[in-house]
Amino acid sequence: MNQQVGASQSSSVDGPRYLIPENEYDYGHPEVVFWTNYFMNEAQKLNVFANIKATIESKRSRLAAETMANAWYDFSCYVPVFITKAVAQTDDPERQHHLIQIAYDELGGRDKSLIHSKLFLDAIAGIGISVSARPSGASVKDVLRVLDQILVGTKGQYGIVGLLLSFEIIAQENIETVYDCLSYNDASRESLSATPFFKIHRADETEHIRHSIANFLRFCKTEAQREEFRKSFDDGLYFWHRFWDQCARMINVAASLSPRAPEGKKISLHAAEQDSHRYAAAEVRGVDGLIASKG
Predict the structure, then answer these.
(1) CB-side neighbour CA atoms (13 Å) of 100
(2) I need a surface site. Which of 209, 214, 221, 271 has the fewest CB within 10 A?
(3) Distance between CA 224 and CA 278 in Å, rounded?
(4) Domain map of the chain by residue range?
(5) Which region holds residue 213: left if phi is over 0, alpha if psi is between -120 and 50, else beta?
(6) What span, in angstroms and rounded, lies between the C-alpha atoms of 179 and 103?
(7) 3-state percent helix, strand, coil for the chain, nearest multiple of 5
(8) Rounded-to-integer distance, Cα 200 and Cα 106, Å
(9) Is the confidence at residue 266, as pLDDT, over 80?
(10) Taking the CA of residue 144 as centre, how many other CA atoms within 13 Å lie in the half-sphere pointing to its CB?
(11) CATH top-level class of 29-294
């Protein structure tokens, strides 16, 4: 059993896992409990997962699982890069210390064999799926570019903290949605549940959320600081809505290109590529408007 999985599974005996020692904002701290519930409720109002849940219910298949695998692998590789870029936009070493911890965890902590993107590849290999270029050319990379633009437009220190909390606040439902989309039959569902990737994420996403809430409480004290934080938090939730909508769109496009698709529902490869590019362009225009409104 690897070190991180072992640590996660023993949490019920040894107490909850912490990324770094925490002497103030622990799991039982009243403000941690209050603000975790508050920001989770705010995120739920956006109904981020509506389209992807409806799509996977009607399009569940190995092809849909392959499409989701490509999307999440791109995202998993992107996560530590994004967090590192965000931390680089801050100038206080103590804040940097706290904000970088999740990126370090994503990269395996002290053990490179626990790099999350690699664990994900191992997980999907167990159900006979690998990452490869999609016939439609569609991906989530354009949507990830939207998040890069949001980051560029986030000038303040407290906005960075807000953006990073938005990255984690729906992490538990994110990982369960990935699991659902990958589970194209009972055997794959059982196999995925047993993998280190899903064991680690089901055990540890709670700590990523608590750690991010602690950063909010630690660094955003005044009303003005929290207002800046909240604007970026909302922008980050905007990203998640677009990310999951794009995943749903990719699954629908893949199904329409499949030889098994009904003749009336097939679309050409060229049309699929055009649809993907039109969506990406609309996303960029949308985020440009967000950034302009901040200025």
Answers:
(1) 15
(2) 221
(3) 37
(4) 29-294
(5) alpha
(6) 22
(7) 75, 0, 25
(8) 11
(9) no
(10) 18
(11) mainly alpha
Least confident window among 39-43, 196-200, 282-286:
282-286
Dihedral angle of Cα 110, 130, 172, 237, to the nearest 10 degrees = 100
Confidence grade of residue 14 (pLDDT, cut at 50, 70, 90):
low
Total residues belonging to the chain: 295
Assign residue 108 a region (left: φ > 0; alpha: ψ between -120 and 50; beta: otherwise). Answer: left
* Phi and psi angles of residue 135, each rounded to the nearest 5 degrees, phi first: -55, -35
3 state DSSP class of 16: coil
Sequence-ordered alpha helix ranges (H) in the chain = 3-9, 11-14, 30-44, 50-59, 62-88, 93-99, 101-106, 116-125, 141-152, 157-168, 171-182, 186-193, 196-219, 223-257, 269-294
Using DSSP, state whether 36 is helix, strand or coil.
helix
What one-character-per-residue DSSP string does 73-112 give?
HHHHHHHHHHHHHHHHT---HHHHHHHTHHHHHHTTTT-G
Tokens matching residue 80: 């530590």
Q: What is the C-alpha separation between 109 and 112, in angstroms, rounded? A: 7
Looking at every residue in the chain, the average pLDDT score rounds to 87
What is the per-residue pLDDT across 68-78, written as a single tens digit (0 to 9) for each?
A: 999 999 999 99
- For 188, the token pair is 């794959």
Determine the Cα–Cα distance for residues 237 and 224; give it in Å rounded to an integer.
Answer: 20
